[in-house]
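Translate structure to sequence.
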């Protein structure tokens, strides 16, 4: 009887930890889980399960909580958007993650990082298949990544 209860408790704990790290739609983890894990992600924009809407002429702010499997001494952020089949790099005003969080980043510690990017009024109104927000170490390796589909539109337009 005791072995059955222990097995049941272990299965329950496994289920809880599995669901605890799943991101809410439309956010997805896109980096290798062997390097790090995104625990939670939010944006300052309206989101459905299909996409988030970024309005032209405003700042799109992404915040996410992550942990790493290894210590990282130098970390930078990078944003890549896939429109159709073409990847486009987006410039961040401050890609230095260490400036905000302090480095080295330790393994197993939950960090919350945020950054904003201006959505220019000159951008076309378009659906971005996938916007990927990477954290990259000093050797160019992915540490963590969160992705989301985005609709770029005018504030007063109907989608």
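Result:
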């Amino acid at each position: 009887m005791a072995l059955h209860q222990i097995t049941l408790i272990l299965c329950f704990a496994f289920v809880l930890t599995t669901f605890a790290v799943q991101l809410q739609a439309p956010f997805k983890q896109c980096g290798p889980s062997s390097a790090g894990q995104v625990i939670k992600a939010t944006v300052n924009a309206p989101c459905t399960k299909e996409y988030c809407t970024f309005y032209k002429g405003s700042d799109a702010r992404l915040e996410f909580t992550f942990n790493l499997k290894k210590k990282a001494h130098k970390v930078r952020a990078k944003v890549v958007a896939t429109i159709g089949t073409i990847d486009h790099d987006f410039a961040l005003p401050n890609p230095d993650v260490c400036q905000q969080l302090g480095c080295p980043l330790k393994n197993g510690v939950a960090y919350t990082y945020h950054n904003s990017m201006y959505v220019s009024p000159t951008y076309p109104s378009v659906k971005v298949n996938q916007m990927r927000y990477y954290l990259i170490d000093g050797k160019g390796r992915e540490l963590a990544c969160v992705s989301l589909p985005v609709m770029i539109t005018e504030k007063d337009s109907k989608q």
